[in-house]
Amino acid sequence: MKRRAVIVLLIAFIALPAVAQDVKMLKLRASFISMGQATQQQRDQAVSRGGQGPGAVALPLADLVDIKQLSRFEGVGYGDLCRLSTNVYPDVNSDSGIYYYYPARWYLHFEPEEGGYHLRIEYKASSTGTNSVLLTAQLTPGYDQQDLAVLQAMLEEHLRSQGNQRVQPRLLPLPATPQAEFRLASWDIEEVTVNAIEPDTNTIHLSISADVPTKELVTSTLLHEGLPGSVTLVPDVWSDLQTLTSPVEGYAEIRLGDITGGPTVRWPRSTPGGQAEVVNGWPFDMRLSYLVYLLRDRDGGLRLRGWDLGDRVLAPGDTAKIPASALNMEFRSEAAVDARFVASLVRDEELGRSVIDSCTGGVGALPVENLVIDIMQPEALFDQYAIYRVAVEVRSAHFDPEGREVITRSYVLDGAENPLTTDPLYLWEEPSGGDLYQYRVGVVTNDGVTHADEDWRRPGSFLPYTINIGSDVVEAVLAE
Amino acid sequence: MRACCALLALLIAVSAPAAAWPVLSEGRETAAGWCYPDHEERQVWWLPPETATLKDDGGRPDVHLTIFSYLGVRETGDLGTARAGAVLQFTLEFPSAGARLAEAQRWLGPQAKIRPLVPEQIDAEVVFAGVNSVRPATLAEDDETGPGAWTERRFAMRLTPEETAVVADAWEHGSVILSVNLAASATVLAARPARGADPEPDLGAVLTDSVPIAIDSNADPDAVTVLELDATMPAAYTSLELGCAELGASGGPSDLARVIAVVEAEAMNGDLIDQEVRFSDGSPPTEVAKFDRAVRLDHGYRLRVARVYATGVVEEQPARRVEVWQGFVDICSVAAGTDAGLDPRLLY
Hints:
- The complex is a heterodimer.
- By secondary structure, chain A is an alpha+beta fold.
- Chain A starts with 5 loop residues before the first strand and ends with a helix.
- Helices cover 16% and strands 36% of the residues of chain A.
- In chain A, the strands form seven sheets. In chain A, strands 7, 10, 11, 13, 14, 15, 16, 17 and 23 form a nine-stranded mixed β-sheet that branches. In chain A, strands 2, 4, 19, 20 and 22 form a five-stranded mixed β-sheet that branches. Chain A has a four-stranded mixed β-sheet with strand order 3-5-6-12, sandwiched between helices.
- Chain B is mostly beta strands.
- Chain B is built from three helices and 25 strands.
- In chain B, the strands form seven sheets. In chain B, strands 5, 8, 9, 12 and 15 form a five-stranded mixed β-sheet that branches.
- In chain B, strand 3 and strand 4 form a beta hairpin.
- The two termini of chain B are 39 Å apart.
- The interface between A and B is large, with 75 and 82 residues.
């Protein structure tokens, strides 16, 4: 077994001072409810606060809010700080202070604590048709309360910069029905079925049927550029005053190795031994670029501060330890809106194929086999020994699907239908390790005399589901 | 230069205000690009995007070309089936307008309120260098997408065989060059209406641009993926042809009644499943063991053969492990059926 490495990270600080301010946290609904109930609840929530529906003009907060020092963190953008769309729609009633948020992107869902990727590739029985491989996947927008906190901070900062702080802004989910669509004709996929979209988490469940070569093309694509799709949010129009009636479009992607499909890598809540541990729960190498925190400046404005982690790579299962003493007090102050690691995954062909392999299954051995009775060269055998019929008596608990009782069955053969396929044997595990069945052979000769085994015979080791009857058996029976 | 135009049309929605339209005829050029005054609010100026850019994907441009081929083999029951193609994907995004908004503010004065103008519709046209066929204008799967505002979008398009050949050749020789021509439109007023007249808003171009894309095989080898699907397929509903001429060739009475072969392979769930083939007097010289459940091609199979005589005596040969799926195995010949050391998935 691979030994897991523990790496102590030396960090370099990139920062300037700032000041504290309270951050209003919003709670996400956790219960599973229907889509209709969800939009009704969203609507009720808005109406109770004087909302009249989202307005048509979105506020592009990423354009309107300047986060100081963001450019000092190379490669870090707004999308690394917030998984929600940074476009928010104000309510048409500006006095309500309501702004509507929505998810921006959907990724292949990964949960390290729950078995990894929500991706299954199942080879079905081929008799079900040419598209014999079924691929099912779950996509998630992956945002949490901290993303809402970041969006709230950006919204408040925009309103502050505009001198518009009459009402404390409140973020509510955009009342809209998501519709996911994947058109994968370029990959020879005729149809992608969206089985469900969970109203409370916006998790998309989809399935794709494909033949074997197409499945191979699809899974190979998952390792590289991924399969694109779109999620259209159709606004629930519930007021004549509402001006947002056009759909809002999100982006979806089925791809391995996208870190946004999993939980945001955060600073742990506790630091036992004075060290914070970050475990790479992904099956890919994780590259840690920065530990950043978004700070409200004392005199207003948002600022990004943090530490350069030097793109240190953690192998799957490895742990990075960061001494808490290396951090400043500000990092854990109330002025810090959110703290998170900026990390990415290193896609690797071999690891990716092993991930796909672990997500792949199929129909295996069927738990039933038919018992076959095969007479060797029956015509010659019947002639030579003047046989009229051969009878075989079989006793087995495996004739019963649950093995509750030993069942005895008899078969009479005239040699015409040979081999003879008889009844199924259910292959439940034999606790005592005994025989699958036992049998006795009887021979009725043309003169009407019946000869039969006295003792039960046991199945052979080769082809245990076949009873072979040749001249040796017949002679033995006739000698009884 | 010979060129092929492949038009990807898509509609996107717009967050246009109920009655707030830029007036194109009164636009002013600033260091941040053209700005257009609102038809009602004198202080409001609209700033359309200057261009779309190729998204950065972990330090490299987000453009990928997948060239794939598949050749059916006897084991998979589709001998002679050939598939080939290529899929081009790239992601365009509108960069943050924050700096441009500030720049426009400086040009238009402190009283001006600059607002980003989000396009309602974008037409994208892909032009490959070296291909002279013209593609129908609405080939891409995204062209029927309903309206919806977006800031980034993945384009995916299946290349024609001609395009695939040219692009694959260009890749082998160093680089693939293409460009994406963009035309973005929004609801605008061409000119301010005369006093007392109703405004007549209409969709008008607010951005035309060309995004050049060069995929350099040396600088960005990961941009192109070449897939030989038949070589990497881990599993298939495989079949194995088994031959035995011993019974049919005896020409007369024989003590040998049966030759039975059991092919044991690993299913995708790890189970061992087997297929049985029986040769008896009068059987054709070849029989096929066909698995109706997918088995792993990369784990080979185990072959067990037994002769059953007229006496009923079963004479089992030692089981053989065959690492590579062969198209044909002669189970009655000692010499035949040994591993040839070649992967038949690549041979047929």
